[in-house]
Amino acid sequence: MATALSIKDLEQQEADLVFKTFDEDTAIMIGMALVEAGKANKAPIVIDIRTPDRTLFHAALAGSAPDNDQWALRKSNFALRMHCSSMLGGRRLKEAGKTVGPELGLDLITYAAHGGSVPIRVAGVGVIGAITVSGLASAEDHSMVVAAMTAVLETLR
């Protein structure tokens, strides 16, 4: 089970998860790391890595359902719009006493502030995409993405 992280911890995670460059090969490396982790844990997950206009990697593991694809899309839409992880954004909203909805101009069918989507941030550029897992509990989805990003960043250094 994933450990509950504070807003400060989540902000630090994102500050640490910055790529020098990011391309299709990097997306495949992260995607395959997530596939292997998912298979090793028999996790019924969907993995989605995308830019605002293009899918770079997508996989649906055994036991996942079409609903997981929709959750992945909603969470990645949130990360791409807010330039923070869906978990961090959800925690910030909760602390402010707000939720995704009309008050923020965000349609609940299109956006979800639940853990599992982390923005792809490139140094000197900013957010260019999102890496998303859906199928487990919110914190576990988030932790899987962070672990895969961290492992790939280590190999690229």
UniProtKB/TrEMBL annotation:
It comes from the Bacteria. Pfam families: HbpS-like. SUPFAM superfamilies: GlcG-like. NCBIfam families: PRK02487.1-5. This is Uncharacterized protein. It comes from Hartmannibacter diazotrophicus.
